[in-house]
């Protein structure tokens, strides 16, 4: 059942992406990629010039050969004599042409390579910056693996298209045009004989391009699926181990890999006929040219040297057309990757700043007026329904209620991670929509259940809130909150590495670091989403004291799971089905014999049953 559900969820995600991808399939990727070349126009221009010189060098060689055949050997009465000066100059010319060719191709490749690095890195930066601006809903709907696949592999896939592609295309076109002119120069009949196969070659190339584009889009999609699964596995590895679903998970990965392989193989089979087909066509072209050339010799219109020279041009004329095979394949891979990148870049953040934002809040007065909200616009049920709540500046308000009834959602709306569907959220009497998001969020300090720390030391993490602060200032803040005893016990004290996402620290230690971080940021409003997992009594007390100290003189919202911790709160609000059903002081609410007293009773019973001070939680009620 779980597997089925997982598959269904994944499928919905994929379907959503495919539907979006189809929308932008019509766009011409090439024209959207072109502006990227603007920043490296100097390198691009030099490469174009170098390629033009290279083509000139290539074309001079058949002329050397023709001169050697037609004039290198002189027929005299004594027999055939060598035209030594001509042969010497032609040999030198041939050697120089090879040396120049190697030198120019090396330089051209170096320049296009450095341009590539420049363009791809700036695209990476653009994608990264854009990702940070996207609203939470985008991350709710899109798997992390898909995003990584775009920001990393899809950008890599542009390299052959953007970098080697243009010089090769240019070189191919130049060789094709110059070969055509040279053949025309020798004899228009020779050119016409060879050109008779071009329509068939173009038709085949066009067909190939269409098939190839579709194939590469499928391959990229299949690849994104297994990457997404890999990322999910890495981030959920604990749960997978705990639920002993490694085998199921590996099976799912294998089946996604199998889909990828099948798509890749099918794609390769479909496109593999192109090369042999073009080879057959060029053989036919060569036969036609030789036939026409033979007639020309018989009719004394052409010399043997000219035919030998024209044979070189056959490859220079048809070769570029065959190279289109490779170029189109590259274009297809790159275009499908570009499409996925543009799909990401075209995604607009749902939540944007107002054109003229108000000054950031100071006093921390919070009001929710008739707020309605649901995460998914298509969902039938509202998560928050007609919520009215006022928190005067400096008040400590505790929010309690059963799990999944909207407690954390209230905070998400206060920080404008999501936009309300109806009603308004006011901070200091101003709608949160009228503040600049960054300034609003700086004024709301969050200490959440699943606190995230970033790789680096404890001090590095504290410094996120106060970038200019010295080590001593940071440590002083830790001491002021009474968190020093616990943090100094870490292996290297404040210099201990916290590991990826803070994995080397315990839950309680992470929470203390976050409380100090919030203290350093000096917000007007504080939110403590109390941890549901147990910490020892000593740490718990330290956390509570630190939070109490932190909330002095600020508005504080405590999402409480341990009812014993909030008895002293200035007000307690009980939330049920996204509405405030009761609000008052602890004693008042107990006396009401309503929801709160029921929750409290259940909490006390659970505490007594397990004989642990933190055993009972409202979330189990
Ligand atoms: N990002 C999201 N996308 C869609 N639905 C969500 C999202 N976050 C929460 N929900 C849903 O909204 C409802 C309220 O969730 P919320 O996290 O506010 O509950 P809560 O009361 O804080 O629960 P808990 O006590 O377990 O923390 C739940 O039904 C939850 O499934």
TrEMBL record:
<feature type="transmembrane region" description="Helical">
    <location>
        <begin position="192"/>
        <end position="208"/>
    </location>
</feature>
<feature type="transmembrane region" description="Helical">
    <location>
        <begin position="273"/>
        <end position="298"/>
    </location>
</feature>
<feature type="domain" description="ABC transmembrane type-1">
    <location>
        <begin position="47"/>
        <end position="333"/>
    </location>
</feature>
<dbReference type="Pfam" id="PF00005">
    <property type="entry name" value="ABC_tran"/>
</dbReference>
<keyword id="KW-1003">Cell membrane</keyword>
<keyword id="KW-0067">ATP-binding</keyword>
<dbReference type="Pfam" id="PF00664">
    <property type="entry name" value="ABC_membrane"/>
</dbReference>
<dbReference type="InterPro" id="IPR039421">
    <property type="entry name" value="Type_1_exporter"/>
</dbReference>
<keyword id="KW-1133">Transmembrane helix</keyword>
<dbReference type="InterPro" id="IPR011527">
    <property type="entry name" value="ABC1_TM_dom"/>
</dbReference>
<dbReference type="InterPro" id="IPR003439">
    <property type="entry name" value="ABC_transporter-like_ATP-bd"/>
</dbReference>
<protein>
    <submittedName>
        <fullName>ABC transporter ATP-binding protein</fullName>
    </submittedName>
</protein>
<dbReference type="InterPro" id="IPR036640">
    <property type="entry name" value="ABC1_TM_sf"/>
</dbReference>
<keyword id="KW-0472">Membrane</keyword>
<dbReference type="InterPro" id="IPR027417">
    <property type="entry name" value="P-loop_NTPase"/>
</dbReference>
<feature type="transmembrane region" description="Helical">
    <location>
        <begin position="80"/>
        <end position="100"/>
    </location>
</feature>
<dbReference type="GO" id="GO:0005524">
    <property type="term" value="F:ATP binding"/>
</dbReference>
<feature type="transmembrane region" description="Helical">
    <location>
        <begin position="169"/>
        <end position="186"/>
    </location>
</feature>
<dbReference type="InterPro" id="IPR003593">
    <property type="entry name" value="AAA+_ATPase"/>
</dbReference>
<keyword id="KW-0812">Transmembrane</keyword>
<dbReference type="InterPro" id="IPR017871">
    <property type="entry name" value="ABC_transporter-like_CS"/>
</dbReference>
<feature type="domain" description="ABC transporter">
    <location>
        <begin position="366"/>
        <end position="602"/>
    </location>
</feature>
<feature type="transmembrane region" description="Helical">
    <location>
        <begin position="40"/>
        <end position="60"/>
    </location>
</feature>
<keyword id="KW-0547">Nucleotide-binding</keyword>
